[in-house]
Amino acid sequence: MTRAKALKKKVLIVDDEELFITGLKVLLEQENFEVLTSNNGIDGLLLASHHKLDLVLLDITMSELGGLAMLKKMRSQPWGKHIPILMLTASPSSSTHFQQALKLGTSDYLVKDEWKADQIIEYIKQLLKVDRVAAVTV
Predict the structure, then answer these.
(1) What's the pLDDT tens digit per position in 116-135?
(2) C-alpha span between 33 and 25 (Å, rounded)
(3) C-alpha torsion sign, points 50, 56, 57, 61
(4) Residue 131: Cβ within 10 Å count
(5) What is the domain range of residue 50?
(6) How many domains does the chain have?
(7) Which end of the chain is more exposed for a tag (fewer CB within 10 A), N or C?
(8) Ordered alpha helix ranges (H), the chain
(9) What CATH number did the domain enclosing 22 receive?
(10) Are the beta carbons of 130 and 2 closer than 8 angstroms?
(11) Angle 18-30/117-127 helices, nearest 10 degrees?
């Protein structure tokens, strides 16, 4: 295994906005992350249970198994108790969702419209303690 492969962090993005997923996936891969994606909570939960993840980006509102339900299911499993999970929302007005997410064990809660994609990438790198030097292929 090459050093670069060993340093790759695995991120799962679960969101029903395809453009958001695609844009974030491209940026994360440019930073040497391995990225898995799902557009619903059912498939996202399945992916999460079958991969050793370093981080999950999870949309609150989705038609099939919403983010809060997926978060709750993940936290109830031994494999999902300690994975950092960033909840994402398009609506800053939902303090109820925010409180529920905190009670269920989210690592943080981001309002998409308040963050640019590159800011989300930088935040993820800080959270996972990844620096630019470590992300460069050796």
Answers:
(1) 888 889 999 988 887 654 44
(2) 9
(3) positive
(4) 9
(5) 3-135
(6) 1
(7) N
(8) 3-7, 18-30, 41-50, 67-75, 95-104, 117-127, 132-135
(9) 3.40.50.2300
(10) no
(11) 50
